[in-house]
Design brief:
With 105 residues, this protein is an alpha+beta fold. The protein has helices spanning 6-10, 13-16, 55-72; strands at 73-76, 87-89, 93-95, 101-104. It is a peripheral membrane protein.
Length: 105
């Protein structure tokens, strides 16, 4: 089995700068912040013949899930808490569980 080292691709300072470890979603936005920019260096589902066949399904599901949540709730962190963006190692790098406050709109 041949697999790409996606961690290395997504942490290459040539494309992401020396702060690739820092969560900065603005990397994927246009300068005016109104459009999402697709980077050819961001390949979480791999590329080519070995790309994930479920990519389209996964992207659609994630979009619909968050759309439904954000339409019905205001989401925030509990007062005095900060988000922890360090990941947990496993088969991949997953976010740690977070406490969130959801208030009905």
């Amino acid at each position: 089995m041949v697999l790409a080292n996606l961690w290395s691709v997504h942490h290459n300072p040539k494309y992401w700068g020396n702060d690739a470890e820092i969560f900065r979603p603005e990397r994927f936005l246009s300068e005016d912040g109104k459009r999402v920019i697709k980077s050819e260096h961001f390949i979480p589902f791999s590329i080519g013949k070995r790309s994930c066949p479920g990519e389209s399904y996964a992207r659609t599901e994630v979009f619909l899930y968050f759309t439904c949540i954000f339409q019905k709730f205001n989401v925030s962190l509990p007062e005095g808490k900060k988000a922890d963006f360090d990941g947990q190692l496993g088969i991949g790098l997953a976010p740690k569980p977070q406490e969130l406050c959801l208030k009905i709109r």
